[in-house]
Amino acid sequence: MSEFEQMYREVILDHYKAPRNHGLLDPNDAVAEGQNPLCGDEVTVSVRFGAGDVIEGVGFEGRGCAISQAATSMLTELVKGRTAQDVALMPKEELLDEIGIPLTPVRLKCALLGLGVLKIALHRSKGTPLPDEWGTSSGEISLG
Amino acid sequence: MPVTSSAHLDATAVRADFPFLRDEVDGRPLAYLDSASSTQKPRQVLDRMRAFYEHEYANVHRGVYRLAECATESYEHARRTVAAFVNAPSEREVIFTRSTTESINLVAYAWGLRNLGPGDVVVVSELEHHANFVPWQFIASKTGARLRSIPIDDAGELRLEILDDLAREGSIKVVTAGLVSNSLGTINPVERLAAWAHGQGAIMVVDAAQAAPHRAIDVQGLGCDFLAFSSHKLCGPTGIGALWGRRALLEAMEPFNLGGEMIRSVSLDHTTFNEIPYKFEAGTPAIAEAVGFGAAIDYITAIGLEAIEQHEHELTAHAVGRLGELEWVRLFGPPVERRAGIVSFDVAGVHPHDVAQILDWKGVAVRAGHHCTQPLMARLGVPATTRASFYVYSIREEIDRLVEGLHEVKRNLG
């Protein structure tokens, strides 16, 4: 299997070309956006909750590489029907296993972008814990 | 004045100087097309730094023993080399910093904090690298000055016709621009901007990070007041750069970093500062790095800045020509005659990360991202571009490999 076939598996290309749960939910109960430190990927994730903080609906939009967009698409399928608390604590390995491709440290950031943004959305709306590596912005410059 | 040679650059001879080219991937050396990000090092620079550490090393400006005098002389010789490289009137106007970024921060803080206030305007451009944008944005917010930006046209060149409108916005105090754009390769008319700046009573600050390695720099000819550039972008080590500044301005400025070396006398209730350039060089400097910086300048000066410029012009023309043949590739930036050796492009339907990933598997290294120019990306309407950039060791064959790789990208993901 070539390097290309290993990283850009059928399932990745499928999710990239036909992303699931694409489009922001309106109305929604939570929304957050984020950018990849490996610059050039952006993702916005919106969530709607049902009873018991169960994630009833997820919708995302974004511009970015095949890995970041496909991973976010796969994530949305993974989290439907689970509680906010459960997803907030979801280890990144669970998503990476689902994606199932070898990822360099730098492309890891592409793959995990959507998960981080989703966890921020959950944190803001339901106060669920936020993993250390996904802190919110630590400052800004505003010109009057 | 730099020693320029009109001899053609002998790429085979130059490439033989670079150890990294001996490593092979799939039977070929890496096609390194990311010199705008950082440059590879020739053995002449590596050997000089090793020799310095092995036989000449001591702390500088302090010791009386011979080794210390030697080290000091090597460090100051590097300073003189930098001064000559940019045609500075005096080597005392050359400050060693950590980088272009630190050089610009030095001016923003040490000149800006004291000289900017409400009603003042700092003029940047839409092309600027974050290093020549964010410090001004920050200092403007601290002082109440306004930040205004010169926009670009669709070819990526500055729209200077708006300068008169900018003049009406307040008292122009700083005009700053890169001499060469790191994302688009645009060569900015810095002499014109400097003349306009002085007419407004403003200082002109030049980010020469992408220019100094690739074309002869003359601070007196440019008419600027400050100019910054980095060692690692011209085959020198990381961790060192330079700021050239007009003497009168530097003498009037307060220090930026304080501590040892930059003082004359220190007591509990009173401290006096050293003369320039030492006033701005607190602490033990990056001594061997300065020596390496000097050796790198000697190396490229021996090749000849004109020969380098010509070599890159030919490569850029080849790249623009070959990429222009691909209807699914969009090129950004000005025509070849008005751009330096940097080519940013977009592959239809494929994100730059994925382009760069596939090219990597073909042994071609390019840069994917916003290149620390987010305002520019926003203006271009793209999240990121793929960028190829050239230097003394780049050859046509590498550009052909890039194009081959792009065909593969298109086949697989387009």
Plain-language structure description:
The complex is a heterodimer of chains A (144) and B (414). Chain A is an alpha+beta fold and 144 residues long. Helices cover 43% and strands 16% of the residues of chain A. Chain A is built from six helices and three strands; from the N terminus they run ααβββαααα. Chain A has a three-stranded antiparallel β-sheet with strand order 1-2-3, covered by helices on one side. In chain A, helix 3 (66-79) packs across helix 5 and helix 3 crosses helix 6 (105-126). The N and C termini of chain A lie far apart (56 Å). The model of chain A has no long low-confidence stretch (mean pLDDT 91). Chain B is an alpha/beta fold and 414 residues long. Helices cover 39% and strands 17% of the residues of chain B. In chain B, the strands form five sheets. Chain B has a seven-stranded mixed β-sheet with strand order 4-10-9-8-7-5-6, with helices on both faces. In chain B, strands 13-14-17-16 form a four-stranded antiparallel β-sheet, with helices on one face. Chain B is globular. Chain B starts with 10 loop residues before the first helix and ends with a helix. The chains are: A alpha+beta (144), B alpha/beta (414). The A-B interface holds A 3-4, 7-8, 13, 38-42, 63-68, 107, 110, 141-144 and B 134, 137-138, 140-141, 146-147, 351-354, 357-358, 361, 368-370, 374, 383-384, 412-413.
